[in-house]
């Protein structure tokens, strides 16, 4: 038997070619994943807006959101787990345009152990990772939404946001994306009876100019140090699922002409029972007035950028899921300080109904219909107003997760 | 918002969470990710549902269980068992249940006795108690019929040791 044992080198070679997993350290093995989501979108802009801008928009378009993930991890002999995650944008979205070729939008290394997990690199901040907001059956809400995903401060949407109308940085969602995927260090603590804490330190929330971070290009006007802390509580009590999150991010613009602080508060929650999920969230972005760069009524200067304005917004939604089906309704509203000269506000309102049918694991048929309205602080002109837009959008899509 | 206050808050919460949570027994080392367009974070123990199954195209992103991809038991123990019993004809081998059952085998030197071996791999981890071997022996009686014969108790243990030795060799080779 010993002879047999030693002689079987062919099997050893075969073993090397297949997997070699064990509890102790081994080479990092690459894992491939990702998603592909394509929508056929019908959108009807306000004719007054099209007259005002002199631009006519197509009523039908095909839009996609595609990413390929490369990841791998290994467990060291001392018990530490270490891994890498790289996410490649794979077309169908604005970030692949020639003007913004940063198609790897997230790329980071993580180290995890009993002490928690450290994430170093380009990834959303720890508050974002823990954030809870209104449910949407099609996953077509917030920063990832075709209708909600952008505004003049970042990204673009099916119903075009007039440049004068300001909203949240990073799109019409409550998830804190002041820094999007700028390089940072994030710590997430182990979940303790349902409670998870996270914190991030971001040396420059605007990312680097060579890599305008984020597929929605949430590039900030000024160089900025930021840090944030967040918490998530997720637990189930007798069939009732509870998720609560809150977080705070503080930023400091270190540019002589724009001495200003920036704070961001978020809170959100979801309750789920017997297929129903009710959720909502709230976000407040506030720029300090001390530099007067970003007008807030009392400020002397007029805001020159869509970024770093004072914006408050919330969303709320309800979802029902039964077997492969899910349907939802969600509502979002934000109000932003416009020009410093008055106390009026820009307002963005979006609501949508979404549905999903799960064909097989990872394959979903999606549909969304909704309404978006972008109102500048100035009153609306009867005709040819480039500062107000509103309209319907209807879309159906197919989503593959792999 | 006072910047010093904010800075202190961040540092204090960070330090508290490290110190307090690492010392607690109720902690679970699962960490959140948030998929684009998702309404809530997905914790590390909630798998993504994909067309290639929960673990994605090339297998598990979060491994460390010691199991082989695609099979339900430890891959080193599995290959070592097949290797060790390679001289016998194998009747069934189920990598998901971790069983290898050989056919009856007569040693050429002793045509009047034959052996059958069952191997059960019990764990996805490479560990000494992860493999269990049963050996059966039959011999011809005066009529030429096969009858069960008691075997030495240590024989199963020796076979287990051979498998573990082989598994260790495979494991060492795989990390070089």
From TrEMBL, chain A:
Pfam families in the record: Porin_4 (PF13609)
Keywords: Signal
Entry GO terms, CC: membrane
Leader sequence segment: 1-24
Molecular function as annotated in GO: porin activity
KW Signal (keyword) present: yes
Occurrences of domain Porin (ranges): 7-376
InterPro entries membership: Gram_neg_porin_domain (IPR033900), Porin_dom_sf (IPR023614)
Record-annotated membrane-spanning stretches: none
Protein name: Porin domain-containing protein
Organism lineage string: Bacteria, Pseudomonadati, Pseudomonadota, Alphaproteobacteria, Rhodospirillales
